[in-house]
Task: inverse folding
């Protein structure tokens, strides 16, 4: 036996129970309490998923018999619901599934592309647009739209005049104005787009897509999701970009790289983890989005959440069993993706970049 | 190739960090910009690199006006204090990056990278990542990345200050050798006077955005232009005694010291380097002083003495031995004295 092992523990029983044996471990009693609480909470979180899983293997009769939870004991599992969905309603499910896949991946890609570039620009360039110019732009824009709408003036003439007026204004008054907007204000303006609850803007969005006849198309949902998620991408990626040491980018700049090359070769690989995490978040948001999809899609562009919701409003009553099958099919890809991408989400990649 | 700054100034808003700096590095010269933090030396270097805009004046590299040219089109290479290596790229990719972005073809790129990697003894580390290298090796990767492009000038911003003392001494010698062999004009920024003295062909000493002196290390040491230069260069620093200069006689605390400078100043400063001072008997020294502390450095002993309110440091032989508070005399030859005007700092000659 080693010398340390021979040393007797001289603490009292009370100390052994309530005091931590070393700085990186918990005392037995508090450890037990913490783990008990965690296990309890895990059960609370996992129970709905378990319920969905077993319900998907129940028949209509078993579901209506009331709450029973143990397969082979309380009820006999059957593939009835899976059969219903995958064979009878197969067309609808596949359509919603492909819609969801296409809409969420394209909107995520688009959103990440635009958002990271915007975030990088905000992290590295100084923008100081003048208050007066922004104000003038807004006024001239409103005036131009009003002129076109109310007085039926040709839109080409109006926009040319408005542009001319705006540039004249900048030249004449721009130099005298002092108040400017900084990058922080622009960032805040972007995130403030998420302050409004989506339900507030859903009707105007509906009308907009109606007027360009894009209702119930994949494009409408893709664009809307992209715009709705842009602030999150910009906000998150801005923070990741801001942590990259400037030296590295300056070095690349001197070595001859263009801004885009720096962004592509240096900045993006270094923020890979943040990028993956952000993309995953956006993808899940788009995948699960319900409210906008409810308004903007009716049949052709229907997504999975709508399909699930439709299950509880059919003329055959609430089809819990089929609904559960659809839910499982819907959450599987997200769970798999998260497991697969997990390794990207925690890693000290910047280690060794700077300092000896 | 030459690098010239013509009346280059820089202000950040109302703060003037560089006052109309005139500076020219000759072809193949190792020019060191030396100064304390906030002296504007790094700003000057970043302006040469193009990372900082110029408020007024012109910058010429190899005779071409590059004041408003993008960094990538100036054909200079820079080594950063932090090395600024790309952590997600291997040593090979790091060194090859400047060539890659310039569209060099693969086999030529490989050949060039291997060549410089061998020059800095990194030939066997090409597949490693920066995090797998020691501080000195990372430093050499940064150097190789600067060398691989064969730029007209190297710009170095305190490249050795992240290394430990022993390695720093070693890398200093390597840098000097490398610069000599390549013959590339180098502008090197440091706050470390030893680095400046050992590496430079010429030193430009900056303080508060103004050039104090531009000269060879020996000239800067032996013939400082003003009080600031005299105090900044030399370790331990030059001893300074305040007093009055009257027709060549320096008067301080009732002592008269005869000097060769036949001028008068109400407020003057007399300077003498520690190694020019010697300890003598109390009767024939120019100052009487009591020993404050003695420090054995190895090959010599630093003796700090107190003469009235002034503290003086004397470099004595390594065998020097005396009790603290013992009274001694301090002597120095007349031709090793420096005199300065206290108000303007100007050297009196």
Result:
């Amino acid at each position: 036996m080693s010398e340390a092992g021979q040393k007797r523990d001289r603490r009292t029983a009370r100390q052994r129970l309530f005091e931590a044996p070393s700085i990186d471990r918990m005392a037995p009693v508090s450890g037990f309490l913490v783990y008990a609480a965690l296990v309890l909470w895990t059960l609370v979180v996992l129970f709905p998923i378990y319920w969905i899983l077993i319900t998907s293997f129940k028949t209509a009769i078993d579901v209506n018999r009331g709450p029973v939870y143990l397969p082979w004991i309380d009820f006999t599992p059957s593939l009835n619901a899976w059969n219903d969905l995958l064979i009878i309603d197969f067309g609808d499910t596949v359509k919603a599934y492909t819609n969801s896949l296409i809409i969420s991946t394209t909107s995520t890609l688009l959103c990440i592309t635009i958002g990271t570039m915007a975030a990088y620009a905000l992290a590295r360039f100084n923008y100081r647009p003048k208050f007066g110019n922004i104000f003038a732009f807004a006024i001239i824009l409103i005036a131009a739209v009003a002129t076109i709408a109310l007085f039926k003036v040709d839109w080409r003439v109006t926009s040319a005049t408005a542009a001319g007026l705006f540039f004249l204004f900048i030249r004449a008054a721009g130099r005298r104005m002092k108040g400017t907007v900084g990058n922080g204000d622009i960032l805040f303006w972007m995130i403030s787009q998420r302050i409004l609850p989506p339900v507030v803007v859903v009707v105007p969005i509906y009308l907009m897509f109606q007027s360009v006849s894009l209702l119930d198309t994949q494009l409408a949902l893709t664009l809307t999701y992209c715009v709705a998620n842009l602030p999150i991408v910009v906000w998150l990626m801005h923070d990741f970009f801001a942590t990259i040491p400037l030296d590295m980018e300056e070095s690349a700049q001197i070595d001859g790289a263009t801004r885009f090359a720096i962004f592509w070769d240096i900045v993006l690989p270094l923020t890979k983890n943040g990028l993956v995490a952000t993309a995953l978040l956006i993808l899940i948001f788009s995948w699960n989005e319900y409210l906008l999809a409810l308004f903007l899609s009716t049949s052709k562009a229907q997504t999975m959440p709508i399909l699930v919701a439709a299950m509880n409003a059919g003329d055959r009553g609430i089809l819990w069993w089929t609904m559960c099958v659809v839910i499982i099919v819907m959450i599987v890809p997200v769970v798999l993706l998260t497991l697969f991408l997990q390794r990207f989400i925690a890693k000290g990649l910047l280690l060794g970049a700077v300092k000896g | 190739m030459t690098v010239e700054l013509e009346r280059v100034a820089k202000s950040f808003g109302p703060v003037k960090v560089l006052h109309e700096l005139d500076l020219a590095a000759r072809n193949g010269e190792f020019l060191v910009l030396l100064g304390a933090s906030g002296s504007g030396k790094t700003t000057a270097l970043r302006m040469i690199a193009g990372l900082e805009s110029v408020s007024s004046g012109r910058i010429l590299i190899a005779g071409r006006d590059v004041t408003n040219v993008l960094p990538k089109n100036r054909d200079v290479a820079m080594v950063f204090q932090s090395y600024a290596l790309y952590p997600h790229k291997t040593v090979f990719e790091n060194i090859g990056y400047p060539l890659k972005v310039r569209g060099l073809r693969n086999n030529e790129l490989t050949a060039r990278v291997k060549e410089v990697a061998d020059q800095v003894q990194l030939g066997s580390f090409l597949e490693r990542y920066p995090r797998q290298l020691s501080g000195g090796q990372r430093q050499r990767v940064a150097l190789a990345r600067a060398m691989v492009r064969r730029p007209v000038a190297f710009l170095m911003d305190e490249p050795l200050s992240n290394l430990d003392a022993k390695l720093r001494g070693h890398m200093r010698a390597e840098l000097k050798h490398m610069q000599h062999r390549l013959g590339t004009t180098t502008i090197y920024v440091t706050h470390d006077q030893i680095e400046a003295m050992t590496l430079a062909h010429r030193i430009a000493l900056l303080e508060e955005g103004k050039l104090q002196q531009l000269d060879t290390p020996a000239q800067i040491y032996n013939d400082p232009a003003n009080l600031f230069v005299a105090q900044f260069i030399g370790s331990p620093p030059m001893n300074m005694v305040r007093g009055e200069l009257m027709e060549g006689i320096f008067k301080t605390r009732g002592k008269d010291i005869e000097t060769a400078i036949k001028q008068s100043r109400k407020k003057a400063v007399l300077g003498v380097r520690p190694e020019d001072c010697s300890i003598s008997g109390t009767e024939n020294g120019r100052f009487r002083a009591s020993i404050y502390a003695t420090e054995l450095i190895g090959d010599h002993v630093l003796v700090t003495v107190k003469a009235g309110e002034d503290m003086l440091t004397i470099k004595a032989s390594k065998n020097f031995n005396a009790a603290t508070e013992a009274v001694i005399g301090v002597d120095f030859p007349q031709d090793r004295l420096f005199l300065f005007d206290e108000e303007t700092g100007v050297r009196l000659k």
